[in-house]
């Protein structure tokens, strides 16, 4: 065998000829001979063995993910009867419970510390500010909204766990407050809490505020400004996204072979432990609702915890394939479930895992989660509900808000959740 010769690159260029398909050409010299090779697409180029470094980095792993998703699709197409569908559902539920999210079994409620309670007769609610411990040393600030007159009456009402999105203010964000209050005014007990590194759970900064995601504006000298009465989002405050803090501890967890998603699910499950033991809550009638980051956690929780009888997921649901192709989201560490595509799962499997319990999906056209992926995923999940009986026996609903941006879609989440919960209440 002769000596190895280094590859000789001359040109990689794209040409568009009127009336003909665009092509990509590579010109090279091999053993003194000039050679031209053409391909029609970037993937075709890679398969023929040539690309630019940028093409190689972008497409090599994407093609592997797409192949894993194609294998998943082929397995779904093999589900020809209800027995096969139920077996796939069990596999998905166990995968999310044990492999991806490390979900816990329901536990006795942690000790709850009441910080303050007050009544708001004008709005018809009683409000309790509490702390509960999600793991040793980690106190979680939370709020409970109760319709006036219910406490001490002996009544047991349906309840909603409201999971805030990726907003600096956490449960105190004005839009999140509207949703919690609106649900309570409709007759639900509502519990909401601050996610990690949001609201009062800032993780970084000597002064107690998160240097990467603090819920305050700054004055011209760089000090806190007291002129703003509205808790700003990180972008409004001119700061990096809240997700930076999530990524910081999320990457640390990767070193242990774990993911930040486990922490978020643990928070939500401990909140459920608190909610179901409240004396004025019917533990058989608990739902969960959330938008964006809250929609993510609602989808996670609904897939792994059977106590959640109804869910409303807003501005999160799509498919991995569509998100790779056209999505524009900047994913937080907790949104990436390690090995999900490799092991044959996608977001629609989170819905399939919870069939036939009532589930509502809210999609918006101006969101970083592609609308077409939401439609595709909904169609993939629908057979898992149909296997349980005729329409009306179980419910899976989707609502599209054409022309709506994510923030507007989140405002619709309250109505979406109420419609979903009414089917079991």
Automatic annotation (TrEMBL):
Gene Ontology BP annotations: proteolysis
Domain annotation Acetyl xylan esterase: ranges: 267-314
Low complexity biased stretches: 223-236
Domain of life: Eukaryota
Signal peptide: 1-22
Pfam family, one: AXE1
Keyword hit for Signal: yes
InterPro entries in the record: AB_hydrolase_fold (IPR029058), AXE1_dom (IPR008391), FrsA_esterase (IPR050261), Pept_S9_AS (IPR002471)
Keywords: Hydrolase, Signal
MF annotations from Gene Ontology: serine-type endopeptidase activity
Region of interest: Disordered: 215-237
Protein source organism: Polarella glacialis (Dinoflagellate)
Protein name: Acetyl xylan esterase domain-containing protein
Lineage: Eukaryota, Sar, Alveolata, Dinophyceae, Suessiales
């Amino acid at each position: 065998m002769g000596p190895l010769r280094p590859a000789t690159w001359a040109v990689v260029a794209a040409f568009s000829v009127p009336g003909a398909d665009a092509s990509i050409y590579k010109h090279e010299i091999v053993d003194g001979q000039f050679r031209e090779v053409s391909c029609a697409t970037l993937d075709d180029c890679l398969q023929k063995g040539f690309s630019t470094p940028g093409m190689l980095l972008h497409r090599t792993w994407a093609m592997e993910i797409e192949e894993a998703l194609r294998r998943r699709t082929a397995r779904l197409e093999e589900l020809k009867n209800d027995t096969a569908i139920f077996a796939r559902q069990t596999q998905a539920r166990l995968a999310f419970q044990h492999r991806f999210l490390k979900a816990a079994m329901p536990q006795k409620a942690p000790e709850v510390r009441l910080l303050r309670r007050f009544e708001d007769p004008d709005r018809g609610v009683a409000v309790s500010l509490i702390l509960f411990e999600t793991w040793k040393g980690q106190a979680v600030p939370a709020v409970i909204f109760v319709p006036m007159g219910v406490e001490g009456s002996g009544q047991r009402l349906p309840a909603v766990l409201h999971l805030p999105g990726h907003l600096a203010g956490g449960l105190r964000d004005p839009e999140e407050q509207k949703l919690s209050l609106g649900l309570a005014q409709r007759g639900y007990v509502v519990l909401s809490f601050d996610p990690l590194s949001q609201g009062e759970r800032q993780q970084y900064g000597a002064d107690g505020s998160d240097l990467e995601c603090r819920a305050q504006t700054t004055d011209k000298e760089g000090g806190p400004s007291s002129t703003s009465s509205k808790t700003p989002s990180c972008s409004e405050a001119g700061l990096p996204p809240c997700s930076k803090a999530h990524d910081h501890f999320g990457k640390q967890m990767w070193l242990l072979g774990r993911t930040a998603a486990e922490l978020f699910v643990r928070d939500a499950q401990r909140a459920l432990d608190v909610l179901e033991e409240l004396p004025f809550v019917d533990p058989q009638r608990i739902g969960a609702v959330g938008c964006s980051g809250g929609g993510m956690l609602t989808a996670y929780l609904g897939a792994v915890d059977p106590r959640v009888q109804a869910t409303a997921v807003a501005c999160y649901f799509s498919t991995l394939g569509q998100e790779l192709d056209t999505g524009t989201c900047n994913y937080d560490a907790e949104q990436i479930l390690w090995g999900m595509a490799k092991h044959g799962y996608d977001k629609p499997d989170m819905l399939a895992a919870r069939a036939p319990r009532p589930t509502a999906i809210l999609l918006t056209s101006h969101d970083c989660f592609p609308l077409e992926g939401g439609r595709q995923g909904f169609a993939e999940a629908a057979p898992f509900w149909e296997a349980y009986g005729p329409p009306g026996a179980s419910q899976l609903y989707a609502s599209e808000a054409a022309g709506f941006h994510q923030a507007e879609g989140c405002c619709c989440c309250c109505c979406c959740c109420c419609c979903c919960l009414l089917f079991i209440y």
